[in-house]
Amino acid sequence: MGQPPSAYLNTRNPVERHDALPDTLPGRLSGPGLETFSIHDCKNQQQLSHHTHTLLSQLPSKMTAKNRNKNSEKSAASSPEDVPKKSPKSSSSSNNNGVSGPSPQGPPSGSYLGLFATIAFYIGLIGAVGFAAVYLQQVVEEVRQISVRHEHSARHDGELSVKMDSVVQQVESLSSIVDGLESSLGITRVELEGSIARMKRGEVETRKVEEALQRLQNDLLRDLSEGIKEVKEAREIDFSSLEKTVEERLAEVSQSIKASVSEFTEAQDETQGQLSDLKARLGDMEDPALVKQELSAIVEAVAEIKAANEAGGISADSFREQVGAVRSELQTRNQEVASLSQEVETVRSVVQEAVGNLRNSLSAAESDVQALKDKSSALESGVEQAVVAASHVEKQVNAAADQILRRSEDLEARVKTSEESGDSLSASVSDIASRVESLLAKCDTQDSVLAAQGQAVEKVKSGIEQEMEALKISLGELQSNMAAVGGAQTKLSSKDSSLGQQVEEMKSRLAALEDSSSSSVKPEQLQGLTSMVEGLESRAAKLEGHDQAIQALQMALKETTKTLAGLSKGNKGK
C-alpha cells in the first residue's frame, strides 16, 4: 500500500511494442524514481511533445477502466463473506423501511461503507500506479531498443562519414595530382612552343643555308662551266695554233735545213769539183795568174756560202723568237690555270664551310628532335600514370558508391528517418561523381592535347625528313654536276693524252731531224727545240697536277655526300 511507483519498475519483462509510439522519440524522459534515457537521431521535437501528451491523456481513462474492473472483481469476491454481516443490516434496513420498528444500527454501517470505499479507492489507485509503472517500464524498454538501434545507425553513419571523408581525401589528392599534371602540361606546352619556335628558326636557317648552298652551287657550276669552256676554247685555240705554228715552223725549218743542206752539199760538191778541177788545172797549168783567178773565184764562193749560212742563222733567230713567244703564251696560260685552281680551292673551302654549317645545323636539329622525343615520352608516361591513378580512383569511387547505395538501402529499410541523411549522402556521391566526371573530362582534354602535341611532333619529324630529302636531292644534283665535271676532266685528260702523243711525235720528228741533219743543223737550234719540248712537257705535268686537284675535290665532295647520307640515315633510325 505504501510503496512508491518506482518499486514497480524493472520487475517485469518488456511486452510487445506499442503501436502508438513512433520509430524515433527525440529528447530525454526523466521522472522521480525512473532512470534517465537518451534518444538519438530524432525527427522533430513537436512529435515528441504530441506523443507524450497523447500518452498522458490516455493514462487516466485506462487506469479508471482497470480500477473499475478490479473493484468489481474484489466486490464479487468479498460478497459471499459479507452475507451474514449484511443480513442483519438488510434486516435492519427492512425494518427501517417497514413499519414494524426503528433502526438503531444506522451510523456503524455508514462508517463501514466509507472505510470500504476508501480501501477500494486506495486499491484502485495502487493498481493504476502499478499499471502505469508497468506501462512506463515497457515504454522505457522500447525507448532503449530504439536508442540502441539509433546508436547502431549512428555508428554506421559515422563509418560511412569516415569512408566518405577518405573518398573525399582521395578525390582531393587526385585533384591535386591533376592540378600538378596540368601545371606540368602547361610547362611542357610552353617548352614545346619554345622548341617549335626554335624548330621554326632552325627551318628558316636551314632554308637560308639551302638557298645559300643553291646559289653557291649555281655560281660554282656557272663558274666551273665558264672556266671549263674557257679552258677548252683556250686549249683548243692554243693547241691548234701551237700545232699549226710548230708544224709550220718545223716545215719551214725542215725546208730551210733541207735547202741549206742541199745548198751546202751542192756547194760542197761544187767546191770539191772546183778543187778537183783546180788540182787538175794546177797540174795542167803552171800560170800563177790563172791560179789567182781560181782562188778569187773560190773566195767568192766561200763568201756566198757564208752569206747563206748567215741567212740561215737569221731564220733560226726568228724561229727562236717565235718559240719564246710560244713560251710566254704558255706561261700566261699556266698562270690562268693556276688562278683557276686557286678559284677552285676557294670554292672548295666555301663548300667545306657550308657543309660544316649544315652539319652543325643538322646536329642542333637532331638534339632538338631528341629533346622533343624525351619530353613526349615523359609526357606519355605521366599521362599513363594519371590514367592509371584516375582508373584506380574511379574504381574506388564506384566501389564506395556501391557500398553507400547498399548501406543506404539497408538504412532506408531499417530506419525511415535516415532518408534525409541518405539524400545528403546521395548528393555528396553525386558531387563526387560530378567531380570524377570533371576529372575524367580533364583527363580526356589532356589526352587530346597530348595527341595534338604528338601530331605536331610528327609534323616536325615529317618536315625534317622532307628537308633531308631535299638535301639528298641537292646532293644528288651536286653529284651529277661533279659527274659532269669528271666527264669534262676525262675529256681534258684525253686531250692531254693527245697532247702527249703530239709531243712524242714532235720528239720523234726532232730525233729524225737530228739524225737527218746532225751534220748540217746547228746545236743551238737543237737546244731551242729541246727546250720547247721540255716546256710542253712541263705544261702537260701542270695540267696533270690540275687534274689531280680536281680529282681530290671530287673525292672531298663524295666524302661530304657520304657523311650527309649517314646523318640522314641516323635521323631516320632515330
Automatic annotation (TrEMBL):
<dbReference type="GO" id="GO:0005886">
    <property type="term" value="C:plasma membrane"/>
</dbReference>
<feature type="region of interest" description="Disordered">
    <location>
        <begin position="58"/>
        <end position="106"/>
    </location>
</feature>
<keyword id="KW-0812">Transmembrane</keyword>
<keyword id="KW-1003">Cell membrane</keyword>
<keyword id="KW-0597">Phosphoprotein</keyword>
<feature type="region of interest" description="Disordered">
    <location>
        <begin position="1"/>
        <end position="32"/>
    </location>
</feature>
<keyword id="KW-0963">Cytoplasm</keyword>
<feature type="compositionally biased region" description="Low complexity">
    <location>
        <begin position="89"/>
        <end position="106"/>
    </location>
</feature>
<feature type="transmembrane region" description="Helical">
    <location>
        <begin position="112"/>
        <end position="136"/>
    </location>
</feature>
<protein>
    <submittedName>
        <fullName>Cytoskeleton-associated protein 4</fullName>
    </submittedName>
</protein>
<keyword id="KW-0472">Membrane</keyword>
<dbReference type="GO" id="GO:0005737">
    <property type="term" value="C:cytoplasm"/>
</dbReference>
<keyword id="KW-1133">Transmembrane helix</keyword>
